[in-house]
Amino acid sequence: MSLQLFYTPGEMIDAAGSSVVVSGGEARHAARSLRMKKGDEITVGDGAGSLYTVLLEKVEVDGLSGAIVSSRFVARERPGLVLFQAVSRPSRMDEVISRSAEAGVLEVRPFVSPRSEPSSASRAAGRLERWRRIALESSKVARRAWPLSVAEVSDSDSLPGIYRELDLTVLLW
Q1: Contacts of 74 (CB under 8 A, 6+ apart)
Q2: Residue 35 region by backbone torsions, left for phi larger than 0, else alpha for psi between -120 and 50, else beta
């Protein structure tokens, strides 16, 4: 069985000192839901390709800390897939974000299309943080060293300029 994956900012990882600190919601989840304890091993990622196997030394609701047992770097997936997704109903967008993380997509760029519901732009802006949480959780399930990112919501008029930045554009119509 593979070790539970948690993400923490790079500044919370001291590779030279062989220690890691995980705080916030990740620590609460480990302590309360997973009931982890001192001596358990986990995998900690910095979200930039580095994965660390960590032996837990302290498990509390407000933070985990442990010693690095091993580390490895995982190169970014090639090709880097960027999904431009027209904003749709909330449950469908949640599903698109989740499946994109599991499929190895690098970034989702939601946009409001001319066929989107009139109130989509305002609702999408409010749901952006939810989509980012879903992307992070789905990336953990998929055990990705580089978690899926969700860009700010844009309108369809700005897309042609963005397409020009990419090496290859495949448009499904």
Answers
A1: 49, 50, 51, 145, 146
A2: left
Percent pLDDT > 90 in the chain is 42
Question: What would the two tokens of residue 124 be?
Answer: 């999408």
Over the Cα atoms of the chain, what is R_g?
Answer: 18
Q: Which residues contact 35 (CB under 8 A, 6 or more apart)?
A: none
d(CA 59, CA 120): 42
Q: Express each pLDDT in 22-44 by its tens digit.
A: 888 888 888 888 898 999 999 99
SS3 content of the chain, % helix, strand, coil (to 5): 30, 30, 40
Bridge pairing between strands 82-86 and 63-73: unpaired
